[in-house]
């Protein structure tokens, strides 16, 4: 098992970034087509039709958000940065070696779209089920 760590700086404040992570509406703006929450479980639906039910493991307002994600643990850590911005660290633990390269690259796609949505109110995804990660599209 391996661990992935990425950092990204956002000009948006931690409160706005946290809302994108912890709300169904926020997650659907940058991460998956749908990401509704019920009883502490997020029901993800992705453009290629794949689904996953991830349990929320920890939520600390404007600071941390952890969840079970495809049988691994994903941690989002937010830190107040200068000029009211946010330094976000994503840590994905227990990633199987066989999936590491795809997951490692996949998080870049998710984080860059998070930045586009948070800082520029722009969704970079194509939302086309015929043009997904499975077909080699980075803008899935």
List the helices and strands and how they pair.
Elements: E1 2-10, H1 14-22, H2 24-30, E2 34-38, E3 41-45, E4 51-60, E5 64-69, E6 72-80, E7 86-95, H3 100-120
Antiparallel strand pairs: 1-7, 2-3, 3-4, 4-5, 5-6, 6-7
What topology, given as strand order, has the largest sheet?
1-7-6-5-4-3-2
Q: N-to-C SSE series?
A: EHHEEEEEEH
Percent helix? 25-40%
Mean pLDDT: 96
Estimate the global geometry from the Cα principal axes.
globular
Give me the CATH fold name.
Answer: Alpha-D-Glucose-1,6-Bisphosphate, Chain A, domain 4
* CATH level 1 name: Alpha Beta
CATH homologous superfamily heading: START domain
Describe the structure.
The protein has helices at residues 14-22, 24-30, 100-120, and strands at residues 2-10, 34-38, 41-45, 51-60, 64-69, 72-80, 86-95. The chain has 140 residues and is α+β, with helices and mostly antiparallel strands. The chain has one domain (2-135): 2-Layer Sandwich (Alpha-D-Glucose-1,6-Bisphosphate, Chain A, domain 4), CATH 3.30.530. Strands 1-7-6-5-4-3-2 form a 7-stranded antiparallel beta sheet. Strand 6 (72-80) and strand 7 (86-95) form a beta hairpin. The protein is globular, with a radius of gyration of 14 Å. The model has no long low-confidence stretch (mean pLDDT 96). This is Activator of Hsp90 ATPase homologue 1/2-like C-terminal domain-containing protein. InterPro entries: ASHA1/2-like_C (IPR013538), START-like_dom_sf (IPR023393).
């Amino acid at each position: 098992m391996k661990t992935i760590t990425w950092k990204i700086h956002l000009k948006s404040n931690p409160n706005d970034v946290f809302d994108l992570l912890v709300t169904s509406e926020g997650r659907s703006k940058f991460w998956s087509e749908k990401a509704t929450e019920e009883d502490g479980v997020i029901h993800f639906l992705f453009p290629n039709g794949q689904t996953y039910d991830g349990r929320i493991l920890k939520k600390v307002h404007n600071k941390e958000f952890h969840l079970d994600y495809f049988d691994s643990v994903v941690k989002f850590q937010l830190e107040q940065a200068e000029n009211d911005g946010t330094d976000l660290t994503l840590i994905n633990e227990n990633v199987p070696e066989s999936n590491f390269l795809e997951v490692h690259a996949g998080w870049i796609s998710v984080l860059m779209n998070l930045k586009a949505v948070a800082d520029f109110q722009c969704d970079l995804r194509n939302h086309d089920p015929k043009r997904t990660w499975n077909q080699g599209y980075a803008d899935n």
